[in-house]
Amino acid sequence: MAAPPSFFGLVPHEEPATADYELIDRANVGAARVGLSWPAIEPRKDRFDWRTTDRLIGGFASRGITVLPLLNGNPRWLPGTWTKPPVGSARQQRAWMEFVAAAVERYGAGGTYWQAAYGIQFPGSASPRPISTWQVWNEENGPKHFHPRPSVGKYAKLVRITAQAIERHDPGAKIVTGGMASEPTGKGGIDAWTYVRKLMGRRSARRSVDHVALHPYARNEREIASHVKKVRRALKKGGKRKAQVWITELGWSSRPRGGGKLAKTAKQQAKLLKRSYQLLERKRRRWKIGGVYWYTWRDFKSGICDWCPHAGLVTRGRSPKPAYRKYRRVARG
Known about the structure:
With 333 residues, the chain is α/β, with parallel strands linked by helices. The protein has helices at residues 18-26, 38-41, 51-61, 90-107, 112-121, 152-169, 192-200, 203-208, 221-237, 266-282, 322-332, and strands at 8-11, 31-37, 66-72, 133-136, 174-181, 211-215, 245-250, 289-295. The protein has 11 helices and 8 strands.
């Protein structure tokens, strides 16, 4: 059977404009991963600003696109940096749980956003699409995103309190881990499969997590297959063999300078996209793949890594690349 539309995902780096959405519609995108940055949404204690996330979640939902929200970030009014998980004190944990609960109350099943604001913002659009799966943090197995260094114990605590906050308001919702880089660089980085095995070795995490996410940035589709198989073996050993693997970031640059193994030509980028999606769709039942999200939608000026600014399916000026046309074909089925 063909994969459902939600199998073909996308990770926008910036908020899409109307011109972007028109191209996204034509590309047959079925899912989008949207960041719910705690510092941006609650810049001051108990002062929530949902305007940006309303536009993003509503914009995709109005086109029948499923949204996977990414919960992350630590606000300035709490100790620590943006990438420090809020588990160091009872105050931090309580504040995080309040933020998560507020997000679920707004965008989850029966959420207040769907009952009023959505219909006003997007009249006559597709039916509401309440959030049913929530992603917790990003690349927690690498030092870049988990300050001061990766800690399975701290992350296990984070997913446990997140699950508690979500279950109180939407018992049927699912939780997927942050997307783990296959082989993160930097001091203290832990391979994704090793991290999964250790995380599933903790009872609280095993009970809180429904699925795991992977960012298999690799040279080619064969290396991606190797990474997915290693994670599946780790899940089996950890007693979570039924859990899905979600590929919440996958991509290559279309600029063959800088970026190491991820720097390709535009034609190579397109070829790797096609081969990777076809492989993962073909093996989705055997490997229990929940979805594949391309990073990113559109090129941007500068970014968080050397190859990222040129990883888009379209250029900064929104001209479709060869990768856009390949994506459109594989998502069409």
